[in-house]
Amino acid sequence: MTHPLWIGTSFKMNKTRAESVAYATRLRSALGDGVPGVRAFVIPPATALAEVSAVLDGSPVRTGVQNAHWADGGAWTGELSVPQAADAGARIVEIGHSERRAHFAETDGTVRLKVGAVLRHGLTPLVCCGESAEVFERGGSVGHVLRQAEAAFADLADGLERALIAYEPVWAIGEHGREPRPEEVAPVHEALAAEWGGRVGGILYGGSVSPDNAAGLLGVPGVGGLFVGRAAWEVEGYLRILEAGRRHAGARA
C-alpha cells in the first residue's frame, strides 16, 4: 500500500500569535481543497496553537504541538498534557526532537511514555530520530536510528498505524546544519522502511530541506514525506515544497 506523503513544518520558538495566524490564514487561502497525494501539517508555538487550529479547522491542513507530557494531568509545572494539546486543536504531537533530547533531558524512556500517551488519546505521534555527526562519520547511523525507533514504540501496538517517524540527522538540522546528499540519508531510510514501513503511517526526512532539494529527497527510497524547518517558515517556501510533493505523489500514483 502506498501511503500519502506527509509534508509539514514546525515553527520551533518563532512567530507571535499574530504572525502564526497570518501564516495560517494565507496558507489556507493558497491551498484551497489541498494538495493531491499530500497531507500537510503545521506545528506552531503552543501560544498560538488554538488560534492557528481555529483558522485551519475544516481545511486540509492538520495542526500539531511541539511537545507534550505523558501524564494526563497533575503537578507538572510548565508542561502541557496530550488532552490539553488536543483541546487546543492539535492532532499531531512532535516527540523526541534532538533539541529536546540534548537540552531538556529527553530520553528514549520518556519518548516511549509520550508516544504511548499520544496513541492512547487517538492523536498522531511524530517521533524524531537522528544521529550526531560523530555517529554518522563512524558509520553507525542505521543502528543508532533503528534503536531509537525501536525504543520509542516498544510494546506498543494499538494505533501504531497512525504514528509517523521523522529521520532528522543532527548534523543536517538547524541554522548551521549541512545539506545532505540523497545517498547519505538513503541507508537509514531504507532500513526504517524495511523495519517500520508496514507498521507506521509514514516515514519522513527532515534536516536542511529546501524548495531546491525537496524533489531529490522525496526520491530517496523509503522517504514518505518531509519535515521542514526554516525553509517553510514563509508560506511561499512551504508552498514550493508542497508542490514538489504533489509532483512526486503524481509520478508514483
From TrEMBL:
Gene3D superfamilies noted in UniProt: Aldolase class I
Catalysis performed (reactions): D-glyceraldehyde 3-phosphate = dihydroxyacetone phosphate
Keyword Repressor: no
Listed GO MF terms: triose-phosphate isomerase activity
UniProt pathway: Carbohydrate biosynthesis; gluconeogenesis; Carbohydrate degradation; glycolysis; D-glyceraldehyde 3-phosphate from glycerone phosphate: step 1/1
PROSITE patterns: TIM_2 (PS51440)
EC class name: isomerase
EC number: 5.3.1.1
Alphabetical list of SUPFAM superfamilies matching this protein: Triosephosphate isomerase (TIM)
Subcellular location: Cytoplasm
Keyword line: Cytoplasm, Gluconeogenesis, Glycolysis, Isomerase
InterPro entries on file: Aldolase_TIM (IPR013785), TIM_sf (IPR035990), Triosephosphate_isomerase (IPR000652)
Pfam families, per the entry: TIM
Protein family per UniProt: Belongs to the triosephosphate isomerase family.
Subunit structure, interactors included: Homodimer.
Name assigned to this protein: Triosephosphate isomerase
